[in-house]
Amino acid sequence: MSLRGLEGDRRRQRREIGWRLLFTSAAGGTILVSAAIVVSLAGEAWTFLANVDLSALWDIGWFPRRGMYDIKTLVVGTLLVAGIAMIIAAPLGLGAAVYLSEYADRRLRKTLKPILEILAGIPSVVLGYFALTFITPDLLKPIFGNEVAAFNMLAAGIGVGILTIPLVASISEDALRAVPTSLREASFGLGASKLTTTVRVVIPAAVSGIVASLIVGLSRAIGETMVVAIAAGATGGSLFSWNVLQPGQTMTAAMAALAIGSDRVRGDDYAFQSLFFLGLLLFVATLTLNVISERLVRRFRQRY
Length: 304
Fold this sequence. Notes:
Elements (H helix, E strand, L loop, with lengths): L2 H4 L3 H42 L9 E3 L4 E2 L1 H33 L2 H16 L2 H21 L8 H25 L3 H9 L4 H12 L1 H17 L2 H6 L6 E2 L11 H9 L11 H30 L4
Antiparallel strand pairs: 1-2, 1-3
Helix pairs in contact: 2-12, 3-6, 3-9, 4-6, 5-6, 6-9, 7-8, 9-12, 11-12
Protein backbone atom coordinates (compact mmCIF):
# COMPACT_ATOMS: atom_id res chain seq x y z
CA MET A 1 0.00 0.00 0.00
CA SER A 2 1.33 3.43 -0.96
CA LEU A 3 1.63 6.43 1.36
CA ARG A 4 -1.13 8.21 -0.56
CA GLY A 5 -3.44 5.28 0.07
CA LEU A 6 -3.00 5.69 3.80
CA GLU A 7 -4.23 9.30 3.64
CA GLY A 8 -7.81 8.19 3.11
CA ASP A 9 -10.50 9.45 0.78
CA ARG A 10 -9.93 12.99 -0.52
CA ARG A 11 -13.60 13.94 -0.29
CA ARG A 12 -13.75 12.84 3.34
CA GLN A 13 -10.65 14.89 4.09
CA ARG A 14 -12.23 17.97 2.52
CA ARG A 15 -15.41 17.43 4.55
CA GLU A 16 -13.39 17.11 7.75
CA ILE A 17 -11.49 20.32 6.96
CA GLY A 18 -14.77 22.11 6.25
CA TRP A 19 -16.34 21.03 9.51
CA ARG A 20 -13.20 21.98 11.44
CA LEU A 21 -13.24 25.45 9.92
CA LEU A 22 -16.94 25.79 10.74
CA PHE A 23 -16.47 24.85 14.40
CA THR A 24 -13.36 27.02 14.67
CA SER A 25 -15.32 29.97 13.29
CA ALA A 26 -18.12 29.36 15.78
CA ALA A 27 -15.65 29.27 18.68
CA GLY A 28 -13.89 32.39 17.42
CA GLY A 29 -17.24 34.13 16.97
CA THR A 30 -18.14 33.68 20.62
CA ILE A 31 -14.80 35.22 21.61
CA LEU A 32 -15.37 38.18 19.29
CA VAL A 33 -18.88 38.75 20.64
CA SER A 34 -17.60 38.65 24.23
CA ALA A 35 -14.80 41.07 23.36
CA ALA A 36 -17.26 43.45 21.65
CA ILE A 37 -19.50 43.42 24.74
CA VAL A 38 -16.56 44.22 27.01
CA VAL A 39 -15.34 47.03 24.74
CA SER A 40 -18.79 48.63 24.51
CA LEU A 41 -19.29 48.43 28.27
CA ALA A 42 -15.79 49.63 29.12
CA GLY A 43 -16.03 52.69 26.85
CA GLU A 44 -19.22 54.07 28.38
CA ALA A 45 -18.15 53.03 31.88
CA TRP A 46 -14.93 55.02 31.49
CA THR A 47 -16.94 58.02 30.31
CA PHE A 48 -19.05 57.72 33.45
CA LEU A 49 -16.07 57.42 35.83
CA ALA A 50 -14.15 60.23 34.12
CA ASN A 51 -16.97 62.75 34.42
CA VAL A 52 -18.61 61.88 37.75
CA ASP A 53 -17.28 62.99 41.10
CA LEU A 54 -15.98 59.81 42.75
CA SER A 55 -17.52 60.90 46.06
CA ALA A 56 -20.92 60.31 44.42
CA LEU A 57 -20.06 56.60 44.30
CA TRP A 58 -20.16 56.46 48.13
CA ASP A 59 -23.29 58.32 49.21
CA ILE A 60 -26.48 57.71 51.18
CA GLY A 61 -28.18 55.79 48.41
CA TRP A 62 -28.63 55.04 44.72
CA PHE A 63 -30.49 57.91 43.01
CA PRO A 64 -28.89 58.19 39.56
CA ARG A 65 -31.34 60.76 38.23
CA ARG A 66 -30.20 63.05 41.04
CA GLY A 67 -26.51 62.38 40.52
CA MET A 68 -26.15 59.99 43.51
CA TYR A 69 -24.48 56.75 42.49
CA ASP A 70 -23.89 54.90 45.74
CA ILE A 71 -22.42 51.58 44.63
CA LYS A 72 -22.49 49.98 48.08
CA THR A 73 -26.30 50.22 48.10
CA LEU A 74 -26.50 48.01 45.02
CA VAL A 75 -23.66 45.69 46.03
CA VAL A 76 -25.14 45.05 49.48
CA GLY A 77 -28.63 44.61 48.02
CA THR A 78 -27.31 42.16 45.44
CA LEU A 79 -25.41 40.13 48.05
CA LEU A 80 -28.40 40.05 50.41
CA VAL A 81 -30.82 38.80 47.76
CA ALA A 82 -28.31 36.31 46.35
CA GLY A 83 -27.44 35.09 49.85
CA ILE A 84 -31.10 34.51 50.75
CA ALA A 85 -31.60 32.75 47.42
CA MET A 86 -28.70 30.38 48.07
CA ILE A 87 -29.95 29.64 51.60
CA ILE A 88 -33.14 28.43 49.91
CA ALA A 89 -31.65 26.81 46.81
CA ALA A 90 -28.58 25.06 48.25
CA PRO A 91 -30.23 22.68 50.76
CA LEU A 92 -33.35 22.05 48.67
CA GLY A 93 -31.42 21.62 45.44
CA LEU A 94 -28.78 19.35 46.98
CA GLY A 95 -31.44 17.37 48.84
CA ALA A 96 -33.38 16.82 45.63
CA ALA A 97 -30.19 15.81 43.82
CA VAL A 98 -29.22 13.28 46.51
CA TYR A 99 -32.71 11.77 46.51
CA LEU A 100 -32.88 11.49 42.73
CA SER A 101 -29.38 10.05 42.49
CA GLU A 102 -29.24 7.70 45.48
CA TYR A 103 -32.74 6.87 46.70
CA ALA A 104 -35.28 7.18 43.88
CA ASP A 105 -35.77 4.20 41.59
CA ARG A 106 -35.48 4.56 37.84
CA ARG A 107 -39.21 4.96 37.17
CA LEU A 108 -39.66 7.56 39.90
CA ARG A 109 -36.57 9.45 38.76
CA LYS A 110 -37.93 9.70 35.23
CA THR A 111 -41.10 11.25 36.66
CA LEU A 112 -39.66 13.57 39.30
CA LYS A 113 -36.73 15.06 37.41
CA PRO A 114 -38.84 16.60 34.60
CA ILE A 115 -41.25 17.95 37.23
CA LEU A 116 -38.33 19.55 39.07
CA GLU A 117 -36.96 21.04 35.88
CA ILE A 118 -40.35 22.59 35.09
CA LEU A 119 -39.47 25.19 37.75
CA ALA A 120 -36.64 26.36 35.51
CA GLY A 121 -39.14 26.98 32.73
CA ILE A 122 -41.41 29.20 34.79
CA PRO A 123 -40.97 32.83 33.65
CA SER A 124 -39.25 34.97 36.25
CA VAL A 125 -42.07 37.50 35.96
CA VAL A 126 -44.49 34.87 37.26
CA LEU A 127 -42.26 34.11 40.24
CA GLY A 128 -41.91 37.83 40.88
CA TYR A 129 -45.67 38.25 41.20
CA PHE A 130 -45.83 35.02 43.20
CA ALA A 131 -43.39 36.54 45.69
CA LEU A 132 -45.34 39.80 45.74
CA THR A 133 -48.85 38.35 46.11
CA PHE A 134 -48.21 35.16 48.10
CA ILE A 135 -44.83 35.05 49.83
CA THR A 136 -45.04 38.53 51.34
CA PRO A 137 -48.69 38.61 52.51
CA ASP A 138 -49.19 34.92 53.33
CA LEU A 139 -45.77 33.84 54.59
CA LEU A 140 -43.84 36.88 55.79
CA LYS A 141 -46.65 39.05 57.16
CA PRO A 142 -47.81 36.46 59.73
CA ILE A 143 -44.21 36.11 60.97
CA PHE A 144 -42.89 39.68 60.93
CA GLY A 145 -46.16 41.64 61.06
CA ASN A 146 -46.02 45.28 60.06
CA GLU A 147 -42.22 45.26 60.05
CA VAL A 148 -42.22 43.76 56.56
CA ALA A 149 -43.03 46.11 53.70
CA ALA A 150 -45.15 45.21 50.70
CA PHE A 151 -41.97 45.29 48.62
CA ASN A 152 -39.01 43.70 50.37
CA MET A 153 -35.72 41.98 49.64
CA LEU A 154 -36.56 38.88 51.69
CA ALA A 155 -39.47 37.91 49.44
CA ALA A 156 -37.33 38.67 46.40
CA GLY A 157 -34.55 36.43 47.72
CA ILE A 158 -36.99 33.58 48.36
CA GLY A 159 -38.40 33.94 44.84
CA VAL A 160 -34.92 33.92 43.30
CA GLY A 161 -34.08 30.89 45.45
CA ILE A 162 -37.06 28.97 44.06
CA LEU A 163 -35.90 29.88 40.57
CA THR A 164 -32.38 28.63 41.32
CA ILE A 165 -33.35 25.25 42.84
CA PRO A 166 -33.62 23.36 39.50
CA LEU A 167 -30.21 24.60 38.36
CA VAL A 168 -28.46 23.46 41.54
CA ALA A 169 -30.39 20.17 41.63
CA SER A 170 -29.75 19.28 37.99
CA ILE A 171 -25.99 19.92 38.00
CA SER A 172 -25.51 18.28 41.41
CA GLU A 173 -27.52 15.22 40.39
CA ASP A 174 -25.40 14.79 37.27
CA ALA A 175 -22.25 15.03 39.41
CA LEU A 176 -23.55 12.47 41.90
CA ARG A 177 -24.60 9.99 39.23
CA ALA A 178 -21.16 10.30 37.61
CA VAL A 179 -19.58 8.70 40.70
CA PRO A 180 -18.68 5.09 39.77
CA THR A 181 -21.01 2.42 41.11
CA SER A 182 -17.96 0.44 42.24
CA LEU A 183 -17.35 2.98 45.03
CA ARG A 184 -20.87 2.45 46.35
CA GLU A 185 -20.52 -1.32 46.12
CA ALA A 186 -17.19 -1.22 47.95
CA SER A 187 -18.76 0.85 50.73
CA PHE A 188 -21.71 -1.54 51.03
CA GLY A 189 -19.26 -4.45 51.07
CA LEU A 190 -17.56 -2.95 54.12
CA GLY A 191 -20.89 -2.85 55.93
CA ALA A 192 -21.75 0.83 55.47
CA SER A 193 -25.38 1.86 55.38
CA LYS A 194 -27.04 3.75 52.53
CA LEU A 195 -26.82 7.05 54.42
CA THR A 196 -23.17 6.54 55.35
CA THR A 197 -22.28 5.64 51.78
CA THR A 198 -24.05 8.73 50.46
CA VAL A 199 -22.54 11.15 52.99
CA ARG A 200 -19.05 9.67 53.36
CA VAL A 201 -18.38 8.31 49.87
CA VAL A 202 -20.64 9.64 47.11
CA ILE A 203 -20.86 13.31 48.10
CA PRO A 204 -17.09 13.71 48.72
CA ALA A 205 -16.41 12.05 45.37
CA ALA A 206 -18.77 14.48 43.61
CA VAL A 207 -17.74 17.58 45.57
CA SER A 208 -16.23 19.33 42.53
CA GLY A 209 -19.52 19.12 40.62
CA ILE A 210 -21.51 20.17 43.69
CA VAL A 211 -19.29 23.21 44.23
CA ALA A 212 -19.67 24.11 40.56
CA SER A 213 -23.47 23.86 40.83
CA LEU A 214 -23.50 26.19 43.83
CA ILE A 215 -21.34 28.79 42.10
CA VAL A 216 -23.43 28.60 38.93
CA GLY A 217 -26.54 28.99 41.08
CA LEU A 218 -24.98 32.01 42.81
CA SER A 219 -24.22 33.56 39.41
CA ARG A 220 -27.83 32.94 38.40
CA ALA A 221 -29.10 34.58 41.57
CA ILE A 222 -26.86 37.63 41.10
CA GLY A 223 -28.02 38.06 37.52
CA GLU A 224 -31.76 37.70 38.16
CA THR A 225 -33.71 40.86 37.31
CA MET A 226 -37.49 40.56 37.11
CA VAL A 227 -38.13 38.76 40.40
CA VAL A 228 -36.16 41.41 42.29
CA ALA A 229 -37.60 44.28 40.29
CA ILE A 230 -41.17 43.16 41.07
CA ALA A 231 -40.87 41.80 44.60
CA ALA A 232 -38.29 44.20 46.04
CA GLY A 233 -39.68 47.36 44.46
CA ALA A 234 -38.37 48.52 41.09
CA THR A 235 -38.08 52.16 42.11
CA GLY A 236 -35.79 54.72 40.55
CA GLY A 237 -33.65 54.85 43.69
CA SER A 238 -33.04 53.34 47.08
CA LEU A 239 -31.42 54.31 50.36
CA PHE A 240 -28.60 52.18 51.73
CA SER A 241 -29.98 49.55 54.10
CA TRP A 242 -29.19 46.12 55.52
CA ASN A 243 -32.85 45.49 56.39
CA VAL A 244 -34.15 42.68 54.18
CA LEU A 245 -37.73 43.42 55.28
CA GLN A 246 -37.68 46.73 53.42
CA PRO A 247 -37.45 47.59 49.71
CA GLY A 248 -34.02 47.48 48.13
CA GLN A 249 -32.12 47.43 44.90
CA THR A 250 -29.77 45.02 43.21
CA MET A 251 -27.53 45.91 40.30
CA THR A 252 -29.75 44.20 37.74
CA ALA A 253 -32.99 45.64 39.14
CA ALA A 254 -31.43 49.11 39.27
CA MET A 255 -30.50 48.85 35.60
CA ALA A 256 -34.03 47.76 34.70
CA ALA A 257 -35.66 50.51 36.76
CA LEU A 258 -33.39 53.15 35.28
CA ALA A 259 -33.71 52.14 31.63
CA ILE A 260 -37.40 51.18 31.35
CA GLY A 261 -39.63 53.71 29.63
CA SER A 262 -37.08 55.54 27.54
CA ASP A 263 -34.41 54.79 24.99
CA ARG A 264 -32.27 57.43 26.66
CA VAL A 265 -32.32 57.76 30.43
CA ARG A 266 -33.35 61.21 31.61
CA GLY A 267 -32.08 62.91 34.72
CA ASP A 268 -28.46 63.57 35.61
CA ASP A 269 -26.09 64.10 32.68
CA TYR A 270 -24.40 60.75 33.17
CA ALA A 271 -27.30 58.62 34.40
CA PHE A 272 -27.33 56.81 31.05
CA GLN A 273 -23.63 55.94 31.29
CA SER A 274 -24.18 54.52 34.78
CA LEU A 275 -26.07 51.64 33.14
CA PHE A 276 -22.89 50.58 31.35
CA PHE A 277 -20.87 50.98 34.54
CA LEU A 278 -23.23 48.61 36.35
CA GLY A 279 -23.16 46.21 33.41
CA LEU A 280 -19.36 46.13 33.56
CA LEU A 281 -19.45 45.44 37.30
CA LEU A 282 -21.85 42.53 36.71
CA PHE A 283 -19.62 41.18 33.96
CA VAL A 284 -16.56 41.31 36.23
CA ALA A 285 -18.49 39.65 39.08
CA THR A 286 -19.72 36.83 36.83
CA LEU A 287 -16.27 36.33 35.32
CA THR A 288 -14.73 36.17 38.79
CA LEU A 289 -17.24 33.55 39.91
CA ASN A 290 -16.57 31.47 36.80
CA VAL A 291 -12.80 31.62 37.37
CA ILE A 292 -13.25 30.61 41.02
CA SER A 293 -15.54 27.77 39.97
CA GLU A 294 -13.03 26.48 37.43
CA ARG A 295 -10.20 26.54 39.96
CA LEU A 296 -12.24 24.82 42.64
CA VAL A 297 -13.36 22.14 40.20
CA ARG A 298 -9.77 21.50 39.15
CA ARG A 299 -8.60 21.39 42.75
CA PHE A 300 -11.21 18.96 44.05
CA ARG A 301 -11.86 16.92 40.91
CA GLN A 302 -11.27 13.21 41.30
CA ARG A 303 -10.69 10.96 38.29
CA TYR A 304 -11.69 7.31 38.38
